Amino acid sequence: MQRFSPLPVSGATQWSNGRWTIILNANESTARQRFSLAHEFKHIIDHRFIDILYARVAEDDREDFVESICDYFAGCFLVPRPWLKKAWGEGIQRPADLATHFGVSQQAIQVRLSQTGLTGRQRRCGQTASDWRLPRFPRTGTPEGYHRRALAATGSSEKGLA
Questions:
Q1: Shortest CA distance to 102 belongs to which of 27, 24, 34?
Q2: Would you say 101 and 87 are in contact if contact means Cβ atoms under 8 Å apart?
Q3: Residues of the chain whose pLDDT is less than 50?
Q4: pLDDT at position 12
Q5: Contact residues for 88 (Cβ-Cβ < 8 A; gap 6+)
Q6: So what's the pLDDT on residue 76?
Q7: Which of 53, 60, 91, 115, CA to CA, is 20 to 30 A from 84?
Q8: What is the overall mean pLDDT for the chain?
Q9: Which residues contact 102 (CB under 8 A, 6 or more apart)?
Q10: What are the backbone dihedrals phi and psi of residue 23, each rounded to the nearest 5 degrees, phi first?
């Protein structure tokens, strides 16, 4: 990982000399750099499989879609749903307090609170929180058929499910 200043973006990844390098904007807050680091890490994780993972996304929409996926990953990685709900249940409910608790920005907390259903939708960077939700692709077959195929693939039975 390297930090540069000035950098026109929050972060970037680069493959060089047989290894990945994540570049972060040194002018941004530590909380923002942590989010950017997790975001860029998702780009690295997906790199080998990008054409498979996002094959159903139109080429014109792919870049924005991938960026949304990486943002979602970073939010989930830094503010896991069970930990957020636990903190909320323990009385840490002010966004500023939650942001400090998790080491992220208040904007990132607002988005995670919305995604987890703890608060209503909030605006972030000109987007609505619903823009950050993962789009659903239509499945082939009926939901029941999909459920049975998933159980069969894992070797489970419906009786074992609560």
A1: 34
A2: yes
A3: 122, 128-130, 137-162
A4: 87
A5: 98, 118
A6: 96
A7: 53
A8: 79
A9: 78, 79, 83, 84, 87, 109
A10: -110, 130
